[in-house]
Design brief:
Layout (H helix, E strand, L loop, with lengths): L11 H6 L16 E8 L3 H12 L4 E5 L12 E3 H9 L3 H7 L1 E3 L1 E6 L2 E7 L11 E3 L2 H13 L4 E5 L2 E8 L2 E8 L2 E12 L6 H5 L5 E4 L4 E8 L10 E5 L8 E7 L3 E7 L6 H4 L2 H16 L5 E9 L2 E4 L4 E2 L2 E3 L5 E2 L7 H20 L6 H28 L4 H14 L3 H4 L40 E3 L5 E3 L8 E6 L4 H6 L10 E7 L10 E2 L4 H6 L6 E4 L5 E5 L4 H11 L4
Parallel strand pairs: 1-2, 1-11, 2-8, 5-14, 11-20, 24-25, 25-26
Antiparallel strand pairs: 3-7, 4-7, 5-6, 9-10, 10-11, 12-18, 13-16, 13-17, 14-15, 15-16, 18-21, 19-20, 22-23, 24-27, 27-28
């Protein structure tokens, strides 16, 4: 079947049944192992995002996947605003958002009573919602269609890495296929092969951390229910009457499908709990509580899982780098798994591209490991705290949790202690060696290391657009029009830089400038970046802030770019 078959009109069952063609590669008949500059292992959201990013930057990429199908069951469903902005740059954001269910609001219940609601994106002026819910197989399908459009990206299905050997020249991979085994060589290998990573095992590595003594049932059900009854929100119950002494999480997905997570306890039998006759009474009880009546439904998919928070000690082992679940794993509360994996991919892609082009030294890849290990630790900390709050393991812990929940209904301070999963946000890379520390005083969150935030702008054609859409794939100097800005825009550095630097001039409301490429018509760019006329912010290719100045000069900008390439 052609990959183009996976279009917008495909339904979930068609996509899950779709099988990619296995094709014999010329590498399998070569007299000696063929060398590839970049090999990505794993065709999930992380591996596909990384391969597409590198290919869009002009690199030739080989992606190997041991299967020939997309994910079965919904699996990861909550994709965060930051992930959607990355996918916008990869050309799939619109498809994801058109199919997905966007949401910003969550509700927390205790027993049969709502404690409070929260809004993850309470302010106006963002193109994307805080989250969309989208079955993982849809996300993979849209990425696979995009990958098929890139001539310099080759995907080999049913190609399993069964051997790995490092030498002075890079890596040799033994590949198992339906036609037998063959060997290739690679300069760089990126393992995106999941939590049970075969590559990690082949290198004798392991992920370490904490496994939680609890089990949860995921039940995806299809039903016809009123939107008012189950709006596009995240609902979390502590100790509901329909599932006493446990917790339940509800999310709405596309196609009239709802995801329900039931806490089961450590003593639950996974095989028994997956049976439809065990699942149906749980769902019936929840629907009767929510709707006051029974609602017919179909069981789409079910799984019982035990979760853990863990990571590899190092995400880089010479020419082999790890990303996504192969490098780190977290409990599902907070939607930090797939989202952090896609951010791994974005962080690595521009750095590997710079190294392959000779614009940066090999040490830039070390910064990938440093930054994403830091981000993984942040995710693990938040996931561990959420899991401990949701599943107290002692009577004292439960008493504390329940007291906090009771207080949270009428005391906002207590809501900061409630933890039903601190939802995914991009890590601010505070200690990154690629950052240039502030020499001037700034307010706000856009510190060096922060991921750029969106805002509406007016384009040169007088149409309204979005700031992040105007950023390219390289370094960008966001320059507020004002005194000295024209000269800096014309000559952004006083020496030749090894990479391209785009200058994007924006006119703030306080300094309208007809020569500026953009206009901050609502003042939100100035507000969110604390910009005044003449100020500048330097953004890395992954759209993280790496430097900012009140009065920039060409030499300072050049030094900051050089530092961000790990060349200082």
């Amino acid at each position: 079947m052609a990959c183009a078959t996976l279009g917008y009109g495909s339904d979930g069952k068609t996509i899950q049944a779709f099988e990619f063609d296995y094709r014999r590669s010329p590498d399998q008949d070569a007299a000696a192992p063929v060398r590839h500059r970049v090999v990505v292992v794993g065709g999930g959201p992380v591996g596909l995002s990384l391969a597409i990013d590198l290919a869009q930057r002009g690199q030739r990429v080989l992606l190997l996947d041991n299967d020939s199908r997309l994910s079965t069951g919904s699996r990861a469903i909550c994709f965060a605003k930051r992930t959607l902005e990355i996918w916008d740059r990869l050309g799939v954001g619109n498809a994801m958002c058109a199919k997905g269910v966007g949401w910003n609001v969550g509700r927390v219940f205790f027993g049969d009573e709502q404690l409070y609601r929260f809004d993850l994106l309470p302010e106006e002026g963002h193109e994307r919602p805080a989250f969309i819910n989208l079955q993982q197989y849809y996300a993979e399908a849209f990425l696979a269609v995009r990958a098929a459009d890139l001539a310099n990206l080759e995907i080999r299905w049913k190609n399993s890495v069964v051997a790995l050997e490092q030498d002075a020249d890079g890596v040799r991979l033994g590949i198992g296929t339906p036609d037998g085994r063959y060997t290739i060589a690679a300069d760089h290998v990126i393992a995106c092969d999941g939590s049970r990573s075969p590559l990690r095992a082949l290198l004798g590595q392991e992920s370490k951390g904490r496994t939680f003594r609890d089990r949860f049932l995921i039940a995806d059900i299809r039903m016809q229910a009123e939107a008012a009854a189950f709006p596009a929100e995240r609902w979390f119950w502590f100790d509901p009457p329909f599932h006493p002494n446990q917790s339940v999480l509800l999310h709405r997905q596309p196609d009239g499908v709802w995801r329900i997570d039931f806490q089961l306890g450590w003593d639950a039998d996974p095989e028994e709990e997956r049976k439809p006759e065990k699942i149906k009474p749980r769902v019936d009880a929840m629907l009767r509580q929510a709707l006051g009546r029974e609602v017919p439904f179909e069981l789409e998919w079910a799984s019982v899982y035990t979760f853990a928070c863990l990571r590899m000690e190092r995400f880089r082992l010479g020419p082999v780098l790890f990303a996504g679940d192969s490098a780190h794993g977290v409990s599902p509360f907070g939607a930090r798994g797939a989202n952090s994996g896609v951010q791994d991919a974005e962080n690595l892609a521009w750095k590997l591209d710079a190294v392959l082009r000779g614009a940066a030294g090999d040490s830039l890849l070390d910064s990938y490991a440093e930054e994403r290990e830091y981000a993984a630790d942040e995710n693990i900390l938040n996931s561990t705290r959420a899991t401990d709050f949701i599943t107290p393991k002692s009577e004292i812990s439960r008493l504390f949790r329940d007291a906090v929940l009771q207080l949270s209904k009428s005391h906002p301070f207590a809501r900061t202690l409630v933890n039903s999963g601190r939802l995914s946000v991009p890590a601010t890379l505070h200690g990154s060696p690629l950052n240039t520390p502030d020499g001037d005083a700034f307010a706000g969150l856009m510190v060096p290391g922060a991921a750029a935030v969106d805002a509406p702008v007016r384009l040169p054609n007088q149409q309204r657009g979005w700031l992040l859409r105007q950023l390219g794939s390289g370094f960008t100097l966001l320059l507020a029009a004002g005194e000295g800005s024209a000269a800096l825009a014309a000559q952004p550095s006083d020496r030749q830089l090894p990479v391209r630097l785009d200058v994007l001039t924006i006119a703030l409301p306080a300094a309208v400038d007809g020569r500026a490429a953009l206009a901050d018509v609502d003042g939100l760019v100035a507000q969110r970046y604390d910009l005044q006329p003449g100020n500048a912010v330097l953004l890395r290719p992954d759209h993280h802030v790496c430097a900012r100045w009140r009065r920039p000069d060409a030499a300072a900008v050049a030094r900051a770019v050089t530092r961000a390439l790990a060349s200082h």
